[in-house]
Automatic annotation (TrEMBL):
One of its GO terms (molecular function) is carboxylic ester hydrolase activity. GO terms for biological process: acyl-CoA metabolic process. It is found in: Mitochondrion. Keywords: Hydrolase, Mitochondrion, Repeat, Serine esterase, Transit peptide. The keyword Repeat applies. Gene3D superfamilies: Hotdog Thioesterase (3.10.129.10). This is ACOT9 thioesterase. Its main location: mitochondrion. Residues 81-204, 289-401 form the HotDog ACOT-type domain. Belongs to the acyl coenzyme A hydrolase family. InterPro entries: HOTDOG_ACOT (IPR033120), HotDog_dom_sf (IPR029069), Thioestr_dom (IPR006683). Pfam families: 4HBT.
Length: 410
């Protein structure tokens, strides 16, 4: 199958930490609006944009609540941060419109927004101080390590359930594993698995802050924790192997050279007269530079997060939608998202920014299309561009797609 099987770690439902309780005796799962409301309460964020400066000033006083050392914080268990949240698309049809796309399935960009909010709340649950209603920590998304989907279609008229917990902790960072399931025939079946990495910072979001250590309790939890540590080491290795820091490997050089030789125009008389600049496109191929789409977003206050920066989920949604449009126009048929990898949040986006998005098909194989989306902010005063995010999306198209061919070394 082209789709990876989702693996779901089952925790006893009795461990599910609920934000609300029903009067009938059975707990009522919170929905996404309650998640966002709870986040505002934890941080003390203002719902009025005009009051945001004062709200952030008030957070400065929380500096005194920060731990001086990680050892001063009580350890937590994985089940301490476990949450279940409902997205009632089936039972509350009035919210369906927000999630509906033209193909009568769920907009995946909206799911990215919900995962981002839930990941932050899970981390606040892990770091909660029982005696303090407000948290001194500013918890922000550092990167989306991976999202794997095992369903092509997410139905717009069936309830969705999100579950998740902290799965690994460093000194100032936390890995969060989340799962999404959808109700069919009375049972919830897996749709996707997601791994996010969050970082904790001080109340003004200026410096790193310590978080509670995590204690695995079972052999299964030990494995999950070890995998989190391996994920961290892989990210370090990947960053040090960047082409901006290291020369390509021998294998990479051979691949690049083969592509180059296959695009040389050898129709000229004699091999000696072949020019390095004379290139031709192989059959059923597209130059990479011709497989681009661009977009612009004005970052309005409506899209702000609890720290009055632009919400990471909004950035992911906009990048995904441009990436989807790029894959759609490239493959000339409807693409389906298969995987999301390596979304790096390099710097925050301020409210009022001009956000420039550039999507490019960077690899193809049979029906698969890999799209890279580069996000940057433009400062109209200084006329400077600064990269904020890089996104990687893998789509599968209904039909086989042309090969994408790079023209330049870059």
């Amino acid at each position: 199958s082209a789709y990876r099987l989702c693996t779901m770690r089952k925790l006893p439902s009795v461990l599910a930490r609920k934000l609300t309780s029903g009067t009938s005796g059975s707990p009522v799962l919170p929905d996404m609006s309650e998640v966002r409301s709870r986040l505002r309460d934890i941080v003390g964020a203002s719902t009025n944009w005009r009051d945001h400066v004062q709200a952030m000033q008030e957070r400065k006083a929380l500096h005194t609540l920060l731990a001086k050392r990680q050892e001063d914080l009580p350890p937590r268990r994985m089940k301490d941060s476990y949450l279940e949240v409902i997205l009632p698309l089936g039972s509350q049809p009035e919210i369906r419109e927000k999630y509906l796309n033209v193909h009568n399935s769920v907009r995946f960009g909206r799911i990215l927004e919900d995962l981002d909010s839930l990941g932050v709340l899970i981390c606040y649950t892990h770091t909660k101080q029982e005696t303090q209603p407000r948290s001194p920590l500013s918890i922000v998304t550092a990167l989306v390590d991976k999202i794997n989907l095992c369903k092509k279609i997410i139905y717009p008229d069936c309830d969705i359930k999100f579950t998740g917990n902290v799965s690994w902790v460093g000194r100032t960072s936390m890995e969060v594993k989340m799962h999404m399931l959808q109700l069919h025939g009375g049972d919830y079946s897996p749709v996707l698995d997601a791994t996010f990495v969050m970082v904790a910072r001080d109340p003004e979001n200026k410096r790193p802050a310590f978080v509670n250590p995590l204690i695995p309790e079972t052999p299964e939890e030990e494995e999950i924790f070890k995998q989190g540590e391996l994920n961290k080491l892989k990210r370090i290795d990947f960053s040090t192997a960047s082409l901006l820091k290291m020369a390509p490997t021998a294998e990479e050089r051979n691949i690049v050279h083969d592509i180059f030789l296959n695009t040389l125009d050898t129709r000229q008389e004699g091999e000696r007269t072949v020019s390095f600049r004379s290139r031709k496109l192989p059959p059923n191929s597209v130059w990479m530079e011709d497989a681009k789409l661009k977009g612009l977003q004005i970052c309005h206050p409506q899209e702000r997060n609890i720290f009055n920066r632009i919400f990471g989920g909004f950035l992911m949604r906009k990048a995904f939608e441009l990436g989807w449009a790029t894959a759609c126009s490239y493959g000339s048929s409807r693409p389906f998202i298969v995987s999301v990898d390596d979304i790096m949040f390099q710097r925050p986006v301020e409210v009022g920014s001009l956000l420039l998005l550039s999507a490019q098909v960077c690899y193809t194989e049979k029906n698969y299309i890999q799209v890279r989306v580069h996000s940057e902010v433009y400062d109209a005063d200084t006329r400077e561009h600064q990269t904020t995010n890089i996104f990687h999306f893998t789509f599968i198209s209904e039909n086989e797609v042309p090969r994408v061919i790079p023209k330049t070394y870059g």
